[in-house]
């Protein structure tokens, strides 16, 4: 009995080795939290093996440099250390670069909290390269599918050094914040999460990603980078205005506005609610009729004229102007999508797929953007119905001069 | 050390009714949407899942009704009366081996998933072993205790599950479910076996019904509880498709774990919901594995009645461990899982058919 008990004790002690934590115990101070990554092309174009040379920049948080109190940062008595550190490496695969990066920092890179992934325009321009560089971000079990993906004008690396001077000391979080707050603007695409990108890359529908540009020390995330779905290759951009058109067709969200002139006076209309319907008529298979129906509600936000707003015939006239303006914009955007980009990012294909799946798979899809280019040859009809709901808190703000 | 012997090893009907869904909802669900989505278009996968569920439900009800006629009598003993002792031995060994294979599968899968998402440096073998040791501890004790543990754990599992689905509604897109009913007949035919075999483990009915003293209306009640796994599977599948879309779902290795990773409590209170999900999930897998090992022990114990139960556990555990660590990679684990599921399903069905036929030929009463 006593011997048995002794053995039981030994066994219990041995068990402590298993119970007292595990292989993966890692102190939080030793982890280097990466909050943003940027992918660029390297200096040389290709390696000897014909692979592209990539350059990856990871932004690590340096908690010691993070000033929480305003005083410290303004007086300058604190360290001049930045709250982040960017590490750049070059190589032919993201993993290889990241692997090599371990040697450049005292902390172990930790990707669980990465927020934004910036991919330079130069990278996406090469066939299939965008899909390839994002692969590791989807595949790695540490990464999250909520990472926001942005295509940048110029070198993506520079964006991770931006200083917004708005109190946010970490550029990656600053960019993340901008994207979360621009939901109201129609000129910016809704943030696209990595999970969505994965879906785009696996699907055959063309898609658009947010596009960022930079001037000196400020960043502007408006516009969109358009990709072909069938080969995941970048085809061109939409400017901020066209992005607004795209948003009007695709998103039923509110926010954003547009200017219009009525009898020579400038006015601003704000979208409060917009609803869109896309429909395609395939009765003429070579020249399909593609309808967009928009139902927009909104209010007048600003007027430069001095006319009385609250007047039924004037309201009707304003609505007509808004309608024409929206129609022009949407038509222009679709036209660009058809003629210049030949990419159906508007959901016409999705409509066909949902309504006549067999026909879409067999006949239409192979000839939609490729082959007979049915999408580009389609005839587009846009009909807009705009309703002015409210006019702000006042009728006029100035006396009439005429 | 002397094992404490419980005075009674009987359970109430309620315990079996909870044990059944608890057994079925296990690791299978983590990979299930992938297999179904691969053969169907957009959200049509719910049809094979439902059909498979109903088929399994029918079989489970027949099994329960049949076994209930011999209430209080262990599987081996009534099998002996029906189909002579040697054949009954074969059936019992078959069930024992299948139960061991299921236990090995669960251990490997929980170890793989834990390694993939939580312990990137801990060897799979160590994760699997520590899990198995806890299982061994549980199974060495009282059988009724394991079954009662289900009543404690299963509601928590279900709750976390529903919570997870609710959190993911934020990313749910109705457009991903479109177009509906476009899968052709061939696709359904391919997907239905996956649908059927995803309900793995209802074979426990053969063994546990005998522990119930007085089964009442067991057929109807088994049908009712079988709705729980069917409901869970369907809702998980639809949410997976709604969040990821068909193409991504059929490519993700563990779609449900990815769902858990997507879930975030609003306001950044809890960014890593999957940590909670994993904890609860391990509880669910624990129940399933413990029951699988217990059934194996039950089966072999009825063959070698003079061997003590803990000894059988200690003999089976190393075999299970070695089996579970044999497949070299995740793809071979998947093939192993498929094979085990097919064999388990056909063996249960086969047993039912043989027993029922013999029963009829011998002029037994029709069930009731």
Secondary structure elements and pairings:
The complex is a heterodimer of chains A (402) and B (368).
Chain A: H1 2-19, E1 31-46, E2 52-61, H2 70-75, E3 84-91, H3 94-101, E4 108-110, E5 116-120, H4 121-124, H5 129-139, E6 148-152, H6 156-159, H7 171-181, E7 192-193, H8 194-202, E8 207-215, E9 218-228, E10 233-238, H9 240-250, E11 257-262, E12 265-281, E13 289-303, H10 312-341, H11 348-355, H12 357-364, H13 374-377, E14 379-390
Parallel strand pairs in A: 1-4, 1-5, 5-6, 6-8, 13-14
Antiparallel strand pairs in A: 1-2, 2-3, 6-7, 8-9, 9-10, 11-12, 12-13
Chain B: H1 13-24, H2 28-39, H3 46-68, H4 75-82, H5 85-117, H6 124-140, H7 143-167, H8 185-197, H9 204-208, H10 218-244, H11 246-249, H12 255-262, H13 273-303, H14 309-325, H15 330-361
Fold and architecture overview:
The complex is a heterodimer of chains A (402) and B (368). With 402 residues, chain A is of the alpha/beta class. Chain A has helices spanning 2-19, 70-75, 94-101, 121-124, 129-139, 156-159, 171-181, 194-202, 240-250, 312-341, 348-355, 357-364, 374-377; strands spanning 31-46, 52-61, 84-91, 108-110, 116-120, 148-152, 192-193, 207-215, 218-228, 233-238, 257-262, 265-281, 289-303, 379-390. The radius of gyration of chain A is 27 Å and the shape is globular. Mean pLDDT of chain A is 82; it is low at 71-78. With 368 residues, chain B is mainly α. In chain B, 49% of the residues are buried. The model of chain B has no long low-confidence stretch (mean pLDDT 86). Classes of the chains: A alpha/beta (402), B mainly alpha (368). At the A-B interface, helix 1, helix 8 and helix 11 of A face helix 12 of B.
């Amino acid at each position: 009995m006593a011997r048995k008990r002794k053995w039981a004790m030994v066994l219990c002690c041995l068990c402590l080795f298993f119970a007292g934590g595990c292989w993966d115990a890692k102190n939080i101070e030793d982890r280097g939290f990466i909050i943003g990554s940027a992918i660029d092309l390297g200096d040389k174009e290709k390696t000897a093996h014909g692979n592209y040379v990539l350059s990856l920049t990871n932004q690590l948080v340096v908690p010691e440099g993070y000033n929480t109190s305003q005083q410290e940062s303004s007086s300058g008595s604190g360290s001049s250390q930045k709250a982040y550190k960017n590490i750049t490496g070059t190589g032919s695969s993201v993993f290889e670069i990241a692997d090599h990066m371990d040697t450049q920092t005292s902390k172990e890179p930790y990707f669980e909290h990465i927020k934004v992934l910036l991919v330079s325009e130069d990278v996406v321009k090469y066939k299939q390269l965008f899909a390839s560089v994002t692969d590791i971000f989807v595949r790695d079990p540490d990464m999250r599918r909520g990472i926001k993906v942005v295509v940048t004008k110029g070198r993506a690396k520079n964006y991770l050094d931006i200083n917004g001077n708005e109190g946010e000391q970490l550029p990656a979080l600053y960019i993340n914040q901008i994207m979360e707050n621009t939901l109201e603007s129609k000129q910016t695409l809704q943030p696209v999460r990595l999970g969505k990108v994965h879906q785009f890359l696996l699907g055959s529908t063309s898609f658009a990603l947010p596009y960022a540009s930079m001037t000196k020390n400020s960043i502007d995330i408006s516009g969109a980078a358009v990709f072909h779905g069938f080969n995941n290759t970048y085809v061109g951009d939409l400017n901020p205005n066209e992005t607004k058109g795209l948003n009007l067709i695709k998103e039923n969200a509110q926010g954003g506005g547009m200017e219009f002139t009525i009898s020579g006076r400038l006015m601003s209309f704000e979208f409060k609610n917009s609803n869109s319907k896309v429909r395609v008529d395939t009765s003429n298979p070579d020249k399909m009729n593609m309808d967009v129906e928009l139902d927009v509600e909104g209010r007048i936000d600003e007027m430069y004229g001095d006319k009385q707003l609250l007047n039924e015939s004037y309201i009707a006239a304003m609505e007509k102007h808004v309608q024409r303006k929206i129609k022009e914009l949407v038509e222009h955007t679709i036209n660009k999508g058809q003629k210049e980009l030949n990419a159906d990012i508007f959901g016409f294909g999705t409509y066909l797929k949902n309504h006549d799946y067999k026909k879409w798979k067999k006949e239409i899809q192979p000839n939609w953007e490729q082959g007979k280019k049915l999408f580009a040859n389609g005839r587009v009809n846009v009909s807009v119905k705009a309703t002015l709901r409210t006019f702000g808190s006042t009728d006029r703000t100035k006396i009439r001069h005429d | 050390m002397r094992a404490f012997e419980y005075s009674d090893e009987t359970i109430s009907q309620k315990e079996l009714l909870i044990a059944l869904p608890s057994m079925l909802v296990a690791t299978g669900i983590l990979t299930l949407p992938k297999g179904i989505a691969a053969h169907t278009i957009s959200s049509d996968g719910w049809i094979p899942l439902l059909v498979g569920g109903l088929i399994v439900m029918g079989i489970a009800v027949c099994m329960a009704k049949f076994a209930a006629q011999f209430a209080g009598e262990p599987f081996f003993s009534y099998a002996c009366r029906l189909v002579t002792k040697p054949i009954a031995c074969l059936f019992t060994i078959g069930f024992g081996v299948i139960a061991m294979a299921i236990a090995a599968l669960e251990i490997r899968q929980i170890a793989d998933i834990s390694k993939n998402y939580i312990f990137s440096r801990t060897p799979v073998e160590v994760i699997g072993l520590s899990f198995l040791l806890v299982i061994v501890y549980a199974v060495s004790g009282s059988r009724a205790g394991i079954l009662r543990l289900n009543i404690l754990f299963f509601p928590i599992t279900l709750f976390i599950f529903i919570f997870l689905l609710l959190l993911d509604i934020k990313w749910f897109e109705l457009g991903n479910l479109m177009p509906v009913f476009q899968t052709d007949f061939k696709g359904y035919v391919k997907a239905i076996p996956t649908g059927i075999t995803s309900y793995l483990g209802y074979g426990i009915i053969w063994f546990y019904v005998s522990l119930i003293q007085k089964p009442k209306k067991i057929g109807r009640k088994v049908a009712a509880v079988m709705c729980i796994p069917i409901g869970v599977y369907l809702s998980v599948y639809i949410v997976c498709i709604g969040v990821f879309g068909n193409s991504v779902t059929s490519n993700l290795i563990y779609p449900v774990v990815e769902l858990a990773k997507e879930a975030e409590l609003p306001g950044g209170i809890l960014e890593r919901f999957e940590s909670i999900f994993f904890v609860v999930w391990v509880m669910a897998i624990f129940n399933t594995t413990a029951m699988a090992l217990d059934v194996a022990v039950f089966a072999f114990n009825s063959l070698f009645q003079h061997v003590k139960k803990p000894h059988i556990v200690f003999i089976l555990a190393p075999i299970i461990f070695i089996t579970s660590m044999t497949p070299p990679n995740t793809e071979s684990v998947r093939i192993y899982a498929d094979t085990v599921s097919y064999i388990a399903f056909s063996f249960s069905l086969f047993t039912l058919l043989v027993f029922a036929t013999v029963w009829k030929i011998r002029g037994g009463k029709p069930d009731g």
